[in-house]
Structures are given as structure tokens and as C-alpha cells.
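Hi Y.,

Following your request, here is the sequence exactly as I used it, all 359 residues.
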Amino acid sequence: MNRTITILGSTGSIGRQTLEVAEHLNIKVRALTANKSVDLLEEQIRLFKPELVAVYDEKAAGKLNERLRNTNVRIVSGMEGQIEAASSSGADIIVTAIAGQAGLEPTLAAVKTGKRIALANKEPLVCAGKEVMQTALKCRAEIIPVDSEHSAIFQCLANENMSLKDNKNVRKIILTASGGPFRGMTKKELEKITPKQALKHPNWNMGKKITIDSATLMNKGLELIEAMHLFSISPDQIEVLIHPESIIHSMVEFADGSTIAQLSNPDMRQPIQYALTYPDRQPSLTKPLDLTELKALTFEKPDMEAFPCLRLAYEAAKKGTKTCATLNQANEEAVELFLKNEIGFNDIPTFIEKALKAD
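Below is the corresponding structure, written out as C-alpha cells. Let me know if you'd prefer a different format.
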């Protein structure tokens, strides 16, 4: 493909898989950014030869610069470096995959370039969805979602020749969720869950934070807020269904009663590639789906008593951007405390609800 990309967050799970896809499609990498994973970043630089690399941690940037004296790569640091990589790399497509709220400023900088944004971090839309979408409209940036669920919705709408904003014939969006590793457990049973147990997702290989969010169902809550902004739809028109097989990645129900779904094996390289090649489709690294191997496709309603994070996200979505930003910040803090064994699994939604009440 005659396209070039910048990857914001290249050492994370999405970033690494994006580089796999780029290599598969022979896409040139213009710039990479990371936090401080020097060893992996050095490997990526020597393999893909980007012109610019931004490392958020200044000490790590200095260490990397020392190692790469024999190359032509330019290394910058801090948030300024992240923003420079996002806004001045000259790439055709900018993949935004910086985890957490830290991705907001670089994502906005990327959107202002007016290029295609392969959006893989949901927090910018959760915390500042209106601003991001209005900036994209003003700067004529094309946002293609990378989250498997939002990619599925985008593909369903594209099949109908509908744009992100063209939702007049949409009755509702159905976001599917695997249910995480604790599907079916009661609130009482969840009291003794450890970080080690919560980090074992049944279907997906992801970073620590998003894996914990999947276990609490907060990830689905953040996704419904993201979908609300991406597709200009109200929270009441978004339904979450537990689908443990993770084969149907999401669905769109239209005004005439028809429902269109996108199916594929659970492999993030498929939605990543779609965002890079849209509107074209090319052979991918994802194993094709063999329907004869599927024993069943099952669905159930989420248990919001055992997993109240999803309920809190619905409530925040209805209240607006400020509440959504508070929800996201409190969740990031709670997940960090849980990973450090300073609070329990059930304390995560309690922590978040207290923050929302104090807001």
C-alpha cells in the first residue's frame, strides 16, 4: 500500500499489532511514540526505521538517543514530543493508541492535522468527545474507530453507505461484551478476586488497564460513551449484551427491524487493518471464520448489580462530558489502586461512585 502511518503508543498491545499489520501490508512508518519501553522501542526503530520517535519519559529518551547514535532517527521527549509526532510527521494515517487520559492531547493534535485518525484509545472521546468530534469536523479529519466494537458498528453503517453522523435510520446500536473472566459470578463471589485473576481475559490479549476494565465491565461503559459521540446517538439507543464467544463484535438495528452484525475471530489485527485500508479490504493476518466450528452464539443481559461500573457509565453518559471525565479519572485511579492490592475488586465501582457524588 502506498500509505504512511504514525503510531502513538507503539509499544502497547494495539501499537505492536499495528506494526504487524503495517509489515504485512508494506506500509511505511513515519513516526512512533511510547512512554518509556526503551528496549522494545529500539527493536521497533531498527526494524521499521521511522524518521521521528517521541518518548514521554525524558530519561528513557536520553537512553534511547545514546543507543541510536548510529541512525538518522530524531528523538524528542515529553508531552511536547508526543504532540510533535502526532501533528508534524507527514503521515497519511495517525493511529492513536496511547492508553488512558494521557492520550487526549496527542489525539487532539492528530485530529487538527485533518488526516485520517485510526482511533484506538477511547478516553479522548470519553473525556472530551464533543470537542474531539467538533475539531474533526472543523479540520476535516476522518475518524475510523479501531476498537473492535466500534469498528463493527462502523462497518455495519458503511455497508449501508451511511456516515458516522448519518443515523436517522438507526433504531439502536448493540454493543457486545465477552463478560470478562468473572461472567456469572455474584457480587459476593467477586469480593476475593485478585489482580492476577482479573488479568486473565478469556478471549483477548490486552494491556493491564483495559483488561481490568473488561473484568469490571467499565470497558463496555467507556465504549458506550465513545459510541455515543462517534455515532451521534443517545445512551438510550445503545444496548449492551454479553456475548461470551466474542464472534459478533457489535450490531446495528435499523428502523425497519433489520439487524446487521459484523463477525470475525477475536483478533484486533482485523479492525486495525480495516482502519488503515478503508474503504478497501485486503487479505489479513486474521484467521477466517469457520462457521461450522461454532457450537453456539449466545447472548445475555449484563448483571449490573454484580458489575455496577456499567450502570455508572450509563448514568454519566446521560449527565454529560464533565461527569464522563470524572468517571474516567476515578476509574483510572481505582484500577491503579487495585493493581497495587490497595483496594479490592468490588471497591473499584465504590471508589468511582464516591467520586461522581463528590463532583
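The longest strand covers residues 170-177.

Thanks again,
Q.
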